[in-house]
Specification:
By secondary structure, this protein is mainly α. The chain contains two helices and two strands; from the N terminus they run E-E-H-H. It is about 40% helix and about 5% strand. The mean pLDDT is about 80.
Length: about 110
């Protein structure tokens, strides 16, 4: 049987810890009651306009956000791989020349 959220009045599952609409903590916290009653009875002014503060839910990436991030990374890797494959002969030739010139300089020392 669903219950009603005290903050936004949406119905939520009975075993829910947080409201799925506003994020309010639905688990009652144990209130500590004083063991001894106060000696004087003073009037306390209560502001009736205060609304319960919203509890912040732990932030997580949504599935759609995670899929988008992975897709962008894969696209970036495909572009880099295609550029390397396209120019591999020129890259490898330049790399061989660079290594050979470094070898010659070291050998002449």
């Amino acid at each position: 049987m669903p219950i009603t959220c005290p903050n936004c009045n949406h119905s939520v599952r009975k075993d829910a810890r947080y409201c799925g609409f506003c994020g309010t903590n639905l688990m009652p916290s144990a209130e500590v009651k004083p063991a001894v009653a106060p000696a004087k009875s003073e009037k306390t002014v209560v502001n009736q306009n205060l609304k319960p503060q919203k509890q912040s839910k732990p932030k997580r990436f949504k599935t759609s956000q995670m899929v988008t991030i992975v897709a962008i990374i894969l696209l970036f890797l495909v572009v880099i791989l295609s550029v390397v494959c396209r120019y591999w002969s020129e890259i490898s030739e330049g790399l061989v020349q660079l290594l050979f010139s470094l070898y010659v300089r070291i050998a002449l020392l």
